[in-house]
Design a protein that fits this description.
The complex is a heterotrimer of chains A (317), B (330) and C (306). With 317 residues, chain A is an alpha/beta fold. Chain A is built from 8 helices and 13 strands. Chain A has a domain of 206 residues. In chain A, the strands form 4 sheets. In chain A, strands 10-11-3-2-1-12-13 form a 7-stranded mixed β-sheet. Chain A has a two-stranded antiparallel sheet with strand order 4-7. In chain A, strands 5-6 form a two-stranded antiparallel ribbon. In chain A, helix 3 links the parallel strand 2 and strand 3. In chain A, helix 2 packs across helix 3 and helix 6 packs across helix 7. The longest helix of chain A has 21 residues. The relative contact order of chain A is 0.20. Chain B has 330 residues and is α+β, with helices and mostly antiparallel strands. Chain B folds into 2 domains: 209 residues, no CATH class; 83 residues, no CATH class. In chain B, strands 1, 2, 3, 4, 5, 6, 7, 8, 9 and 10 form a 10-stranded mixed β-sheet that branches. In chain B, a hairpin with a 4-residue loop joins strand 9 and strand 10. The longest helix of chain B is centred in the C-terminal third of the chain and has 28 residues. Chain C has a single domain, classed as P-loop containing nucleotide triphosphate hydrolases (Rossmann fold, 3-Layer(aba) Sandwich), CATH 3.40.50. The radius of gyration of chain C is 19 Å and the shape is globular. In chain C, 39% of the residues lie in helices and 15% in strands. Chain C has 306 residues and is of the alpha/beta class. In chain C, helix 10 links the parallel strand 7 and strand 8. The longest helix of chain C is centred in the C-terminal third of the chain and has 20 residues. The chains are: A alpha/beta (317), B alpha+beta (330), C alpha/beta (306). Chains B and C meet through helix 4 of B and helix 5 of C.
């Protein structure tokens, strides 16, 4: 006879999320863009359209199945608050439709930071595992600057020296994965004033990628579930669900891969996003779930998270 | 510039001889009473958004989420051969009955890695794995790890990771730092290799190196990192209990000093340790025979039971007002 | 319990006395560790006679630990490693006696932001295991003293008892200097208070140890002419008055270590064998060490004199 004993609290389960093949981001909206009037919006969408079509066309290696592609759009309500959903969203949707684009999901940037009890940014931060410089053998903790993350080793600051010890001169910083020459980048993750933490734009953009890749969990549960849109949009951003499903027929929000079509002024931000995500350690069980499902669908998945992220940068606007 | 990573691969670990190395450090939690379940959960919540796993049978135990530490350094080879390893070490904290705190660190050594370091995401997709540059003889690494104390510095130091985790937890504000007695931390360095056909069969070699250092070499049919680490934590826990109890009895003067003094000195042990003995309770079925073997020789439970019985006999004699040494006095 | 040994100036025999206190405390069964925080001249190894155990200490001593270069400082088990025949083997009832040496060739260093954190971690770690952690600090106002004052001011260490032994010789200059070190500008009290220590509590945790005190009754002075003996006794009275004026009076003095030729010529642990069999050391000296060792935890001796 074989007996089995199990305690749920000692053997927790991890939620699976439905996945599309591709999450296609059609743009970010900041206050300045909106203030410039509907003409600016239309110009942006017109620039995005051909690249979005190209991204769709490229996403056909789906093992013979119908490609599942969901589109999304991010509105900043975190750094600056402007206007209201009731005024902004109909305009956005109308201009997108005018250019032949359908926005399936709409997210508020606050959704990446904190919405109610959900704190995606904290969840993402907790899983950063710094890339070790050569010589890291575990004997000392990684050199951290609180609130910063770099892709290498910083220039030594004025180290406490011993009495009568020779002084060292300036040393350059070094990118860990440099090939001979470094492109060293030090990313500010957040700052704090009077005990209140403000997450940086690159960090929230990294969280945005993780949400779209379906990689974040809170205690094994889904972090941000899309909410269907209501007939009318509310008068305040806080009343708008953090992630709204605008198109009832949309494919799932999260996807195996992401593609973002962005103006080239976002390039430094996205470089920072890659520095962050290159040092982000996915939960093993989540990674395995996704890999197993991809395999069942006959898809090849890169195991490096940053290799799941694609970009199109278009001319400035 | 960042190199493009290798195109696509699956998450499953590459085939090859499995080799695990690890270290467990065991200490008495620096708190006056057993930490209640809720506080234990809070203490071990080392990663926001990840669950502390708890179980109540057969004894209360809480296990922290796994933490990763990035390493890029020489591996500890006994021969002194320079083999660089890149990857992450997995560490976790275990609290048993709110009383005994352990930091457990382990690394799976991949069969071979490339000679160049890959983008960091490659290693993060294989948590707890270190890839050696070039070929590495398993025995060389096993010997090197188990004699890490005698090697020159600079090589992979799992003990340091464990030590830092223990120190961090023991310094937390929720602990009142009034432990019922003073005790030494113990260290268990362990390795687990897969039994090769035609080579040595499955087995274990447990060695007491000195007052606080123990080593364990495991040879197994199947090397499951989680199960092996749990086994080593269980062994380290019971070894600590036995070591500490024997030491407390020795220092108490039981059997040499007259009167109730020795028993008064042993009271914390009676209050806090005696009920913790449950060897093998959480051990994977495949590893149970190894516990059974250790119970035969050196016979952990035998020594524990004898020591406990000795304390209880003295207690009983005291209770009926008969000094245990009255016969010596005449 | 943390014990900090400090002296106003060099030459008080602070290191050798505190090493002997550690030894005397371990003999009857206490677990004791001795930390060499005399960063400018780490020499404790000589007192404990463990030269060969130190070969590995170039980069693994307290200097390296406090700078964050190693996770744990090297520990030397004195009973096992000492080359002094008189200390081996470990006496039957004795507790642990462990030395944490400085790096060989290490120097005094400026405090970095993490140094205090690491120092506090170390104290907490040792508190888990040892009844007495005796920390031998550099003479005078030093980074070492500042370091431990900052570390012990951290909230994590608030429940750990910390006591100070201030060593001084029995001369006018030394008495004034010792008072200055404790009560004066940038002294222990002023620095401690500025780092968050409660003033009264810190003051009550300081006791003085008079070192290398010539005892008029000692055989060394048996040959004194009456005029010399009188002069000596007048001086002693003067110094006693001076000490009281400077708040170094008998209530605040934990013990007195007599002048002993053995300690003058060779800094070493004084064993019972040195006193009883070979008689190279004076019984009074060994007794003074044992008394001090016992007084460390005798709470009556640490009550507030006010």
């Amino acid at each position: 006879m074989d007996t089995t004993f199990r305690e749920v609290s000692s053997d927790p389960r991890t939620t699976q999320l439905p996945l599309s093949h591709l999450s296609l981001e059609l743009g970010h909206l900041y206050m300045d863009d909106f203030a410039a009037g509907p003409g600016r919006l239309r110009e942006q969408f017109a620039r995005v359209k051909p690249w979005a079509d190209a991204a769709r066309a490229a996403a056909t290696r789906t093992g013979g199945r119908r490609p599942r592609i969901s589109t999304c759009f991010l509105i900043d309500d975190y750094f600056t608050r402007f206007s209201s959903p009731a005024e902004v969203l109909p305009q956005v949707l109308a201009e997108a439709a005018e250019c032949g684009l359908v926005i399936d999901y709409l997210a508020r940037e606050s959704a990446c930071a904190e919405v109610g009890a959900v704190r995606p940014a904290r969840l993402a931060e907790a899983r950063l595992v710094q890339s070790p410089p050569l010589g890291s053998n575990g004997s000392r903790p990684p050199a951290t600057e609180v609130g910063w993350l770099s892709n290498g080793e910083r220039s030594p600051s004025d180290q406490p020296g011993e009495a009568m010890q020779a002084a060292a001169g300036w040393q350059p910083p070094r990118e860990i994965e440099a090939r001979r020459h470094s492109v060293f980048l030090d990313v500010e993750l957040w700052d704090e004033h009077e005990g209140r933490r403000t997450w940086s734009c690159p960090f929230l953009a990294a969280v945005w990628q993780l949400l779209r890749l379906g990689l974040l969990r809170d205690q094994g549960q889904e972090v941000l579930a899309p909410v269907p849109r209501e007939e009318t949009f509310p008068a305040s951003w806080d009343s708008l669900p953090p992630l709204v499903r605008l198109n009832p027929a949309a494919d799932p929000f999260a996807a195996y891969r992401t593609c973002s079509v962005l103006a080239s002024r976002f390039l430094p931000i996205e470089h920072a996003v890659r520095v962050i995500l290159a040092q982000w350690s996915p939960e093993e069980s989540v990674l395995r779930q996704i890999a197993e499902r991809a395999e069942r669908e006959g898809l090849a998945m890169p195991d490096d998270v940053t290799d799941r992220i694609n970009y199109v940068f278009h001319a400035p606007s | 510039m960042t190199r493009p990573s290798e195109p696509f691969s699956t998450v499953s670990p590459p085939a090859g001889p499995d080799l695990l190395i690890g270290e467990v450090r065991t200490a008495l939690l620096q708190h006056s009473v057993a930490l209640p379940r809720a506080a234990a959960g809070q203490l071990l919540q080392l990663r926001h958004g990840e669950r502390v796993r708890t179980s109540e049978r057969p004894s209360g135990q809480a296990v922290s989420p796994d933490l990763l530490t990035g390493v890029d350094c020489p591996l500890p080879t006994a021969s002194g051969r320079a083999v660089r390893g890149v990857g992450t070490a997995t560490s976790r904290a275990v609290l048993t009955e709110g009383r005994l705190l352990q930091a457990s660190v382990r690394v799976r050594i991949a069969a071979t890695g490339g000679s160049l370091r890959l983008p960091w995401g490659h290693y993060l997709a294989r948590p707890g794995t270190v890839e050696p540059s070039g070929r590495l003889a398993g025995a060389d690494l096993v010997d090197g790890h188990l004699s890490a104390d005698r090697l020159p510095g600079g090589a992979l130091d799992l003990g340091a990771i464990a030590e830092r985790l223990l120190t961090d937890l023991q310094g937390r504000r929720v602990l009142d730092r009034r432990a019922p007695f003073r005790s030494r931390r113990t260290r268990l360095l362990w390795t687990a290799t897969r039994a090769e056909p035609g080579g040595d069969g499955p087995g274990a070699l447990f060695t007491i190196e000195d007052g606080t250092l123990r080593t364990l070499r495991l040879t197994l049919e199947r090397v499951d990192p989680v199960a092996v680490a749990a086994f080593c934590e269980d062994l380290a826990l019971h070894d600590w209990l036995l070591t500490t109890l024997v030491q407390l009895v020795e220092r108490s003067g039981l059997g040499s000093a007259p009167g109730p003094e020795p028993l008064l000195r042993l009271r914390p042990a009676v209050d806090h340790l005696l009920h913790l003995w449950m060897p093998g309770a959480r051990v994977d079925r495949a590893l149970a025979p190894i516990w059974a073997g250790l119970e035969t020789r050196p016979g952990f439970t035998r020594q524990w039971a004898a020591t406990v019985q000795r304390i209880r006999d003295h207690l009983a004699l005291q209770a009926i007002g008969l000094p245990a040494h009255s016969y010596q006095g005449d | 319990m943390l014990i900090f040994a400090i002296s106003d100036k060099g030459g008080t025999g602070r290191s050798v006395t505190s090493a002997n206190i550690a030894y005397r405390r371990a003999l009857p069964g206490a677990d004791v560790c001795y930390l060499d925080f005399d960063f400018g001249s780490p020499t404790s190894a000589a007192v404990f006679d463990v030269p060969s155990a130190l070969r590995g200490t170039e980069q693994a001593g307290l200097h390296s630990y406090l700078r964050g270069e190693v996770a744990e400082p090297q520990r030397i088990d004195i009973w096992a490693e000492t080359e002094s025949a008189g200390l081996r083997p470990r006496p039957a009832q004795a507790g642990q006696l462990v030395l944490l040496p400085g790096d060989r060739g290490g120097g005094e260093f400026v405090l970095g932001s993490d140094t205090v954190r690491r120092c506090a971690d170390l104290f907490l770690r040792l508190e888990e295991e040892f009844e007495i952690t005796l920390v031998d600090l550099s003479a005078g106002r030093s980074y070492a003293a500042q370091l431990v004052l900052e570390a012990t001011a951290l909230p994590e260490l608030s429940s750990v008892t910390a006591r100070w032994l201030v060593f001084h010789r029995w001369t006018r200059q030394h008495i004034i200097a010792a008072a200055g070190l404790v009560y004066g500008d940038r002294g222990i009290m002023a620095t401690g208070a500025s780092r968050g220590h409660e003033r009264d509590r810190l003051r009550d945790s300081v006791r003085f140890v008079r070192a290398a005190v010539p005892s008029p009754s000692s055989p060394m002075f048996a040959e004194l002419r009456p005029a010399q003996a009188l002069w000596l006794s007048i001086c002693d009275e003067d110094l006693t008055r001076l000490a009281s004026e400077h708040k170094l009076g008998p209530m605040l003095t934990l013990g007195t270590v007599p002048l002993d030729p053995v300690l003058q010529w060779r800094e070493q642990l004084i064993t019972d064998e040195d006193v009883l069999s070979s008689q190279v050391a004076n019984l009074e000296t060994a007794q003074a060490f044992a008394d001090l060792a016992a007084a460390l935890t005798d709470d009556r001796r640490w009550q507030s004199p006010l």
